[in-house]
Amino acid sequence: MRTVKSIIATTALLLAFGLPASAQIGELRQNFAIGINGGANYSNVSFQPTIKQNGLMGITGGLTARYISEKYFAMICGVQVELNYAQRGWDEKFDQPGDDRAYSREMNYMEIPFLAHLAFGKDRGAQFFLNLGPQIGFMLNEKEKKSGTWSETQLNQEQYDKSVQNKFDYGIVGGAGLEIRTKAGNFLLEGRYYFGLADFYNSTKKDYFSRSAHTTISAKISYLFDIKK
Hints:
Order of helices and strands: HEEEEEEHEEE
Number of helices: 2
Structural class: mainly beta
Shape: elongated
Strand order of the largest sheet: 1-3-4-5-6-7-8-9
Radius of gyration: 20 Å
Largest sheet: 8 strands, antiparallel, barrel
Number of strands: 9
Oligomer: single chain
Helix content: under 10%
């Protein structure tokens, strides 16, 4: 619980730095940009009790809006919000010799990250940036894929044919990347990690899973163009 509180406190602090302010040392900016983003997800699920998994590959993409408010010496401060479609889920690992079973669960979400955006570099040219903040999501649909030879006992494990019970998702997301700012627009390459705090299966004392939350590594490319400089 202390770890979660620390993460939330850190996020709130970074968001505060990203918001427009009247600090005397800040160079005021009013740069508003919008654009698109797209890339790939490598996801799994943190289960307790644990389930052996391979990473599940999926796609992600959507819309981005960013507002740069100030520059403190070499640090450019702003906020960013996105509306993304993302494929998540898990791919189970069966490592017994001769076991031909395969199972995966694809879960499609609509995600909204609210990010503090901190960048270092020149107004034109290359910038290194950090994004950090909370993220919420809502599951749109899910699909199971199952193949191979299954016994009745194997089919009766808790996670199979068990629909998601909590479609609302939330967690903390952070990323880092490189932005190239040109007259034709801004091109961004970013790696991002999402740590889910919400369980999609019920997790009371009477339930089988005490934790069932998403973790996702993303690689994405974005293109933003300035509406207001």
